């Protein structure tokens, strides 16, 4: 029988398989690197896109903040103008108040009462004077209440001083100034009071 040596063939086959294995291993490593590179590039693109969106949002927020500041400044100007308008309206409404006030002071003062001083602080009026009796002061307080231009008379001091025999009682009286209601407002108040 003939002798056949199969060892070189097996060694060559083993070398070929090892070469194929190394080639496949190299191709797998290259494919893995390529896939890793593609994944990294994809996520870097996603991150860059998100950063661009975030920057756009920051820019828009800055623009809106500037607009809010402008609106706040406009609101301050508006409030300032409304306050000025309110002052002008109050001055316009109270323009004739002093004339009516002095007219009412003359009309409401009863006989036996004399005013010595009048002082105004804002909407508060302080009246100082002398009276023949406490009843005259009470009558004066009722007249002030009914005048429409003055309200809430508050008697601070009443004392007997003997300096003037005809008017022995000195008094200090505080009232609040007000604008009388028009007929429509008075009718509306009466109707509202009747509805309750």
Describe the structure.
- The protein is an alpha+beta fold.
- The chain folds into 2 domains: 9-93; 97-180, 2-Layer Sandwich (Gyrase A, domain 2).
- 64% of the residues lie in helices and 19% in strands.
- It has helices spanning 7-93, 97-108, 134-146, 183-195; strands spanning 113-121, 124-131, 150-160, 169-177.
- Strands 1-2-4-3 form a 4-stranded antiparallel sheet, covered by helices on one side.
- It starts with 6 loop residues before the first helix and ends with a helix.
- The mean pLDDT is 84.
| Residue-averaged pLDDT | 84
| Uncertain segments | none
The side-by-side strand order for the widest beta sheet comes to 1-2-4-3
Amino- and carboxy-terminal Cα gap:
136 Å
Strand content: 15-25%
Count of separate structural domains: 2
Proportion in helices = 55-70%
**Number of DSSP strand runs:** 4
Question: Number of DSSP helices?
Answer: 4
Main sheet attributes: strand count, strand direction, barrel closure: 4 strands, antiparallel
Question: Which class do the helix and strand fractions yield?
Answer: alpha+beta
Coarse shape? rod-shaped
Radius of gyration: 50 Å
What order do the helices and strands follow?
A: HHEEHEEH
